[in-house]
């Protein structure tokens, strides 16, 4: 895709699922990838191996660089260190992908406040801290920059029993739009994707259980869950020069889940 080759990209939470697929996709596009992980260097190493294999095949030193960077995105000091490590190693930062995210289940009237706070701290506050540090470097580099937030269909669809998650993704829409407007003059584009149900470890409760999986998929107009690679393709597009005139938007990549599927049948007239 146009404009990604040689770019320096930081992907948070890149040791699994959608983040891993994004890191691999950017490497395939010829970008240098910084792979953030919170606690498991082994999983992040797997992402790195796959990314370099996809980018280079058997060619040694094919030009795509990779870097593993530990940080808990909810910790300001970690994020400051992470961004400066990326700039030290790669020379600059061009693209930030705010992908790290968690969810904690519980009825809204029973959830522990620490659990609510933790989800917000990772999904929303963490994304903001990463964006803040990236924007500082974009401005000092003077070359613009790109941020893509990995939001969710729950940016607009309420998610009962996951109020923290829903609120965090609703906030992410505003974060995307506010930063897009504030920094458009600096040639910084800020967009999001809103994945629907996607086959990744966050959905372990249903992906290996055929009945539960069928139930989930029956609600999706295109009739199936999405793949991480399909999410990564949309992210690559939004980060590329093909999307040079797009900012402040969320692109839902959801098989039609945000189309009010229950209204498929005529119901009122
Ligand atoms: P996942 O659990 O595989 O990925 C989440 C990643 O975030 C993991 O690698 C995890 O280690 C990392 N992470 C968690 N807390 C962190 C922290 N404090 N600091 C740094 N990294 C941290 O699940 P996934 O489905 O790939 O989720 C990726 C993103 O996609 C999340 O933001 C999630 O909300 C979003 N999303 C997923 C789906 C889906 O159906 N899978 C749907 C909509 C949105």
Commentary on this structure:
It is a single chain. This protein is an alpha/beta fold and 269 residues long. The chain has a single domain (8-253), classed as NAD(P)-binding Rossmann-like Domain (Rossmann fold). 44% of the residues lie in helices and 14% in strands. The chain contains eight helices and seven strands. It has a seven-stranded parallel beta sheet with strand order 3-2-1-4-5-6-7, with helices on both faces. Helix 1 crosses helix 8 (228-239), helix 3 runs parallel beside helix 4 and helix 4 packs parallel to helix 5. It is globular. The termini are far apart. The model has no long low-confidence stretch (mean pLDDT 97). It binds nicotinamide-adenine-dinucleotide (NAD). This is Glucose 1-dehydrogenase. InterPro entries: NAD(P)-bd_dom_sf, Sc_DH/Rdtase_CS, SDR_fam.
Quick overview:
Its EC number is 1.1.1.47. The chain is of the alpha/beta class.
Write the layout of secondary structure elements.
Layout: E1 8-11, H1 17-28, E2 32-37, H2 41-56, E3 66-70, H3 76-90, E4 95-98, H4 113-141, E5 145-150, H5 163-183, E6 188-195, H6 204-207, H7 210-218, H8 228-239, E7 250-253
Parallel strand pairs: 1-2, 1-4, 2-3, 4-5, 5-6, 6-7
The structure holds nicotinamide-adenine-dinucleotide (NAD).
Organism: Crinalium epipsammum PCC 9333
Enzyme class: oxidoreductase
EC number: 1.1.1.47
Keywords:
single chain; 269 residues; alpha/beta; Rossmann fold; seven-stranded parallel sheet; 44% helix; globular; binds nicotinamide-adenine-dinucleotide; oxidoreductase
């Amino acid at each position: 895709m146009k404009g990604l080759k040689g770019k320096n990209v930081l992907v948070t939470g890149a040791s699994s699922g959608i983040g891993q697929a994004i890191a691999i996709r950017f490497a395939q596009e010829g970008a240098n990838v910084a792979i953030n992980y919170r606690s498991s260097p082994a999983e992040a190493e797997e992402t790195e191996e796959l990314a370099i294999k996809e980018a280079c095949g058997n060619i040694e030193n094919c030009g795509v660089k990779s870097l593993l960077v530990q940080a808990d995105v909810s910790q300001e000091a970690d994020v400051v260190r992470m961004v400066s490590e990326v700039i030290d190693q790669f020379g600059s930062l061009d693209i930030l992908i705010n992908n790290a995210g968690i969810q904690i289940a519980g009825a809204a009237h029973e959830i522990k406040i620490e659990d609510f706070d933790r989800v917000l701290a990772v999904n929303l506050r963490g994304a903001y801290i990463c964006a803040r540090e990236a924007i500082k470097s974009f401005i000092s580099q003077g070359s613009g920059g790109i941020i893509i937030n990995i939001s969710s269909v729950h940016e607009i669809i309420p998610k009962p029993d996951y109020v923290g998650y829903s609120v965090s993704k609703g906030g992410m829409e505003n974060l995307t739009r506010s930063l897009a407007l504030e920094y458009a003059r600096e040639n910084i584009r800020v967009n999001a994707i809103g994945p629907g149900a996607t086959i990744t470890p966050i959905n372990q409760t249903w992906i290996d259980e055929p009945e539960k999986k069928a139930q989930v998929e029956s609600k999706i107009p295109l009739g199936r869950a999405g793949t991480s690679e399909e999410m990564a393709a949309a992210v690559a597009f939004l980060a590329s020069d093909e999307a040079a005139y797009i900012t402040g938007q969320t692109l839902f990549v959801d098989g039609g889940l945000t189309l009010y599927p229950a209204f498929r049948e005529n119901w009122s007239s």
